[in-house]
Every structure is written in structure tokens, then in C-alpha cells.
TrEMBL record:
It comes from Pseudomonas fluorescens (strain ATCC BAA-477 / NRRL B-23932 / Pf-5). One of its GO terms (molecular function) is transferase activity. CDD domains: GST_C_6, GST_N_3. This is Glutathione S-transferase-like protein YibF. Glutathione binds at residues 14, 58, 72, 118, 139. One of its GO terms (cellular component) is cytoplasm. Keywords: Transferase. Gene3D superfamilies: 1.20.1050.10, Glutaredoxin. PANTHER family: GLUTATHIONE S-TRANSFERASE OMEGA, PTHR43968. The keyword Transferase applies. It holds the Pfam family GST_C_2. Residues 4-87 form the GST N-terminal domain. The keyword Isomerase does not apply. InterPro entries: Glutathione-S-Trfase_C_sf, Glutathione_S-Trfase_N, GST_Omega/HSP26, Thioredoxin-like_sf.
Length: 209
């Protein structure tokens, strides 16, 4: 087995890190990356990570020449150009922009979900800003509605950047926000997610219980 040449700042609870891990599994590159555990939140930063990523966010990927890549979209793009199989990010044409837009929609679900998580887990309950929380949850609901109405066939067509990103966003909703009961109004998305959750890359990267 080859020695890893890159280091990934990693936490199994992060949906953004999960995207990177799923892509590494799907493209056969797992053994190229060593994982460096990072425990952090916006109020409890990881000093080692801050040296490599001034934004203090994971994932960050240190390459063998010392260069550091962030954020997850940049890392996915880089890693997708490092394997010989079919690209998981279309290189050009309208498919590229459509698949990246679906991926951005999924990232937006993660962004809103992570912000809600921080507000609920890190701030005292009497300081919770309900109107802001509702605004974030509305973003999640609108994005899920669009995926259900417009994107199921596209998601089912390949397990690429779009599908990986949506899968990781839904996995995070299950992990941190089961109260949202996202399956209730999105039966097609739920059926798609049930199926792709069985992929080895998804099973191996499930968030901790
Ligand atoms: N847009 C970034 C988001 C990364 C992100 O927010 N990661 C969270 C963990 S899930 C984090 O590092 N939070 C620490 C902080 O915000 O200070 C990406 O796609 O990589």
C-alpha cells in the first residue's frame, strides 16, 4: 500500500468532509490521504487547522508540496482531476453548470443546517433567535422542495458531484435535524436516498451515532 501524500483535516460529523471522503471512496483514492482529526466549532477553534486555513473550517487538504486547499468544492474539484476514471464533475458543457448548481443547492442545505446546529448547540436557549432559525429552516425546506420536484431523475442518473452533495446534505439532516422529518413531504427524494445510502462509500462515511 502506498504512503499517503496528502493530509485531510477531518471530522466524521461534518457533511462537507463527508463529501470529500465519499469522492475518495468512489474514485479509489482513499490511500492517498491521511486523516488529521479536527475537533472545532466557531467558538472553539482548532489552532493547528487555523495555521493551514485562516477561515478555521474543515475540510482543508494539505498537498504533498505543502499547499493547502479549501473549501470542500475546491478539494472535490482537485481530487476529481487526480484519478483516471470517469470524472464526477463534468469538465465542460451544460452538464457541468447544472451538476454544480445542484451541488451548490445541496451545500446551501448544509450551510443552513450547520448554522441551525450551531445556534441550538452553542448558544444558551434564552438567546436563540427564533426568526433567524425559521429563516434558515425555510431555506432547507425550499431547497428540498426543488430537489423533489425537479431533480430526482438527474440525481438517479449518476452518482457524481450533485448526487454526492445531496446525499451528504440529507445524511446531515438525519444526523442533526431528525425533527425536520424531511422524508415526509419528499417521498421520491427519500426513495432515492434509501437506495444510494447502501453504496459502500456512503456506508463507510456515516456520521457517528
Ligand atoms: N463552505 C465550506 C464550509 C465548511 C464548514 O463550515 N465546515 C464546518 C464543519 S461542518 C466548520 O469547519 N466549522 C467551523 C467554523 O465555522 O468555525 C466548505 O464547503 O468546506
Amino acid at each position: 500500500m502506498s504512503t499517503p501524500s496528502m493530509t485531510l483535516f477531518h471530522n466524521p460529523a461534518s457533511p462537507y468532509v463527508r463529501k470529500v471522503m465519499v469522492l475518495l471512496h468512489e474514485t479509489g483514492q482513499l490511500n492517498r490521504v491521511a486523516l488529521q482529526a479536527s475537533q472545532l466549532s466557531p467558538v472553539a477553534p482548532d489552532a493547528a487547522l487555523n495555521q493551514d486555513n485562516p477561515l478555521g473550517k474543515i475540510p482543508a487538504l494539505r498537498l504533498d508540496n505543502g499547499q493547502v486547499l479549501y473549501d470542500s468544492r475546491v478539494i472535490l474539484d482537485y481530487l476529481d482531476q487526480q484519478h483516471v476514471g470517469n470524472p464526477l464533475i463534468p469538465r465542460d458543457g451544460s452538464a457541468r453548470w447544472r451538476r454544480l448548481t445542484l451541488a451548490a443547492l445541496a451545500d446551501g442545505i448544509m450551510d443552513a443546517s450547520v448554522l441551525v446546529r450551531y445556534e441550538l448547540a452553542l448558544r444558551a436557549p434564552e438567546k436563540h433567535w427564533e426568526q433567524w432559525l425559521d429563516g434558515q429552516r425555510d431555506k432547507i425546506r425550499r431547497a428540498l422542495a426543488v430537489l423533489e420536484a425537479e431533480a430526482i431523475a438527474e440525481l438517479a442518473s449518476h452518482f457524481d458531484i450533485a448526487a454526492i452533495s445531496v446525499a451528504c446534505a440529507l445524511g446531515y439532516l438525519d444526523f442533526r435535524h431528525p425533527d425536520l422529518e424531511w422524508r415526509q413531504d419528499h417521498p421520491q427524494l427519500a426513495a432515492w436516498y434509501f437506495e444510494i445510502s447502501q453504496r459502500p462509500s456512503m456506508l463507510a462515511t456515516r456520521p457517528p451515532v
